[in-house]
Write a structure and sequence with these properties.
The protein has 190 residues and is an alpha+beta fold. It has 2 domains: 79 residues, ACT domain (Alpha-Beta Plaits, 2-Layer Sandwich), CATH 3.30.70.260; 67 residues, ACT-like. Chain A, domain 2 (Alpha-Beta Plaits, 2-Layer Sandwich). Helices cover 23% and strands 36% of the residues. The chain has 4 helices and 9 strands, in the order βαββαββαββαββ. Strands 5, 6, 7, 8 and 9 form a 5-stranded antiparallel β-sheet that branches. Strands 2-3-1-4 form a 4-stranded antiparallel β-sheet, covered by helices on one side. The longest helix is centred in the N-terminal third of the chain and has 12 residues.
């Protein structure tokens, strides 16, 4: 079996501990998570979790099925082989002197990145794109001296009108039934 990078997208209930339960399942299966990103969705009380892992198709599918059984996971799909748009964001603090500043600005312009902060001895560059674009810019800026990097990891959506996690396709969040209360009962009519 060939080992490839898989992008798993999950809709999860927005509750404390969900990220821990999901990442623990990967840990128990001896998977290293390349990146994980979580954020709110268009649906209240639901978050979208994008997980990138390396593994063969069979092992990743087995983990996906186990994640689908986790009570807080509403739905999870592997979009690795689907047409999708994936992006990363990175903030890079680069050493800059008066003599290197213009060269750094030219490189940033070529990558259609932005300079979001300027100080006497450094610049902070914001770059958005696929992982290869971010890595290529990082490689070029290393020659000037990188002080800090903050990188998000991959986020992704499938192309087209109907995605596998479209709101209409998602089962309702799992709710625990409430026991009937005494106050709600109507008194007998004697």
């Amino acid at each position: 079996m060939a080992v490839t990078k898989h992008t798993l997208v999950a809709l999860v209930e927005d509750r404390p501990g969900v990220l821990n339960r999901v990442s623990s399942l990967f840990r128990r299966r001896n998977f290293n998570i390349d990146s994980i990103a979580v954020g709110h969705t268009e649906q209240p009380n639901l978050s979208r979790m994008i997980i990138v892992v390396e593994g063969d198709d069979a092992k990743v599918e087995q983990v996906r099925k186990q994640l689908d059984k986790v009570i807080d996971v509403v739905k999870i799909v592997d979009i690795t082989h689907d047409e999708s748009v994936a992006r990363e964001l990175a903030l890079i603090k680069v050493k800059a002197t008066a003599s290197t500043r213009s060269e750094i600005i030219q490189i940033v312009d070529i990558f259609r990145a932005n300079i979001v902060d300027v100080s006497a001895d450094s610049l902070i560059v914001e770059v958005t794109g696929d992982g290869d674009k971010v890595t290529s810019l990082l490689d070029l800026l290393r020659g000037f001296g990188i002080r800090e990097i903050a990188r998000t990891g991959s986020i992704a959506l499938t192309r087209g009108a109907v995605g596998p996690l479209q709101v209409e396709d998602v089962k309702a969040p799992k709710a625990t039934p409430k026991p009937p209360t005494r106050e709600a009962e109507t008194p007998p009519d004697w």
